Amino acid sequence: MAGNGRKPGWGGMLGRNNPSFIKSFFLISIYFFMLFMALFVPFGFGFMLFLGVPFIIYTVRYSWKHALIAGFAALWISLIIGNAIILFISFFYISIGITMGLLYHLKKPAIYVVLSGIGLFIFQAVLGIALLQSALDTSFFSLLEEQIKDFRLDAALMEQSAQFQEFVDEQSSVLIFILKNTFVSILIFSAAATILAHHLVSVKLLNQRGYQIPTLPPFKNWRWPRSILYYYLGAIGVMWLISWVPELGEDQYVMSVLLNLIPVLSAMITLQGISLVFWFADYRKISKVLPVVVLILVVVLWPVSFLLNLLGILDLGLDFRKRLFDK
After folding, report:
1. Where are the alpha helices (DSSP H) in 3-63?
2. Which of 5, 74, 158, 260 lies at a CB distance of 3.0 to 4.6 Å from 184, suitable for a disulfide?
3. Residue 164 — pLDDT band, cuts 50, 70, 90?
4. pLDDT exceeds cutoff 60 at 79
5. Rounded CA gap, 110 and 174, in Å?
């Protein structure tokens, strides 16, 4: 009714509870456009970071029941136009989108939604790998090794150089070792990056259109518990001890845990350092350009990442923010 003083939201303007066939078709079209870009267009893989966003928005605008119907339709189309891999990818991202959308609709805290999305991402990835191994009766890493070896043979044929082939063999062995021993950390990084991208884009779009979606705290206020520092220093200490006593590193389980744990904890500490830079820029009223430049340099220059890692350690250990406030 006019005169109630309430501005209609996105859902109210477009019929929140009764999505038409055209709206559902539009949702599915957007999803398959993004999927096509991600799978078949050079450098389009970045679309994978946002594949579930259409279903997040659809679930919040209407309901999880309507989103499920649209999701089943998308899965049916995936099976018709693609294969088992495309079907799995669609199920993977549609389920993440509907789950996160439902949690937003229930007004769950942002950190709860993000952690739930990360957990679902990891669970589905592990389940997919298990199903793949069962179907092909071989291990995931054996399949991965075969793919790398195929590339090695192709490269060797192209170059017709024994020296080049030896170099490729060495690099292939190193790559296989790294992937085998850091798979867990790679999976965690992939899950965190994907779900954070889904969250940031979805919240931005929904809040612009009248929805009050919970957001994460400002990045400048991100802080980890001090226990993260103790775990990190402990893992570094064990790795340092192994470098002095190589016999301790013969246990593959211990080395695998360390090789997965240290990168994750190191990334968390580095984020603490970057957060401190953003906080200090805000505290001193410095231009926001400076912390953004620092963030870019972290990706480009390894020494900057090392310095921010050190800054994160000092911030966790000495609590720089509290000390500055006390002054």
Report:
1. 10-14, 21-40, 53-61
2. 260
3. low
4. yes
5. 39
What is the per-residue pLDDT across 174-228, written as a single tens digit (0 to 9) for each?
A: 777 777 778 889 999 999 999 999 999 999 999 888 888 888 888 888 888 889 9
pTM: 0.81
Mark whether 199 and 237 lie in a shared domain: no
CA distance 5 to 184: 52
Residues 251 and 290 in one domain: yes
Flag whether 321 is in a domain: yes
- List the one residue out of 65, 70, 71, 64 whose CA is nearest residue 23: 70
Angle at alpha carbon of residue 181, lines to 175 and 186, rounded to 5°: 85
Gap between the Cα atoms of 157 and 115, Å rounded:
46
User: Residue 134 corresponds to which tokens in the numbers above?
Assistant: 């069962």
CA 140/CA 62 separation, integer angstroms: 39
**What range defines the domain where residue 308 resides?**
219-326
Q: Is 203 inside any structural domain?
A: yes
Hey, how many other C-beta atoms are within 10 angstroms of the C-beta on 265?
A: 20
Quick check: is 306 in a domain? yes
Residue type, 255: M
- Which amino acid belongs to residue 142? S
Nearest by Cα to 32 from 10, 55, 11: 55
Position 174 in a domain? yes
- 238, 295: one domain: yes
Q: Residue ranges of the alpha helices (H) in 284-301? A: 289-300
Among 44, 71, 41, 33, smallest CA distance to 55 is for 71
